[in-house]
Amino acid sequence: MTRGSTLPAHRLPHLTGRLPIPAQTRTPPATLVETFNTAPAEEALDDLLACLHSLCWARRVADHRPYPTVDALLAASDEAAYDLTAADLTEALAAESLPTLPEGTYEAAHTALAAAHAAYEARFGHVFVLCLDGVSPNDTLDFVLESIRSRLTNDPEDERVVAAEELRRLARGRLLSRLRGAGNCATNHNEAAPGT
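Above: the chain's sequence. Below: its structure in token form.
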């Protein structure tokens, strides 16, 4: 059984002097990494220094632009952080401040943290740094105090390695936050730059 057309054929009359409606195209927003790749050098450097205050680290990450994906940029950030010298770490640590406690934390907690930090700084000569990514606000105080007390038992060389790793994690998290802020809060880490 042959099935015929259910709708009558319609033909448009030839419309002289009229143009067809162009296809609707949407220009996609700039990708996270494209925004970073195309930023002026000084702006990119300033953004990076806000993530980790090491000129060596920031220059190395900025100088290797363009990055094909966010993951490639984060990997370069990690690699540059692993290669920081003692002087670079000192520079970065000098710009850090204590982890912020959640709003509403009682006064005794601030006193306990200040005392623990004073002991830490006296022992190691730099501010205590700790990445709080993934720690719930309800657990922040306990996590910070437990971490600082635990790390006070490290010898200075071991603690420098731990502090460097915390700086690397902080830089990574801050960089990702800045990229998301510039890229409409997208969350796809594997987003490729145009043309790749």
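Residues 24-29, 183-196 have pLDDT under 50 and may be disordered.
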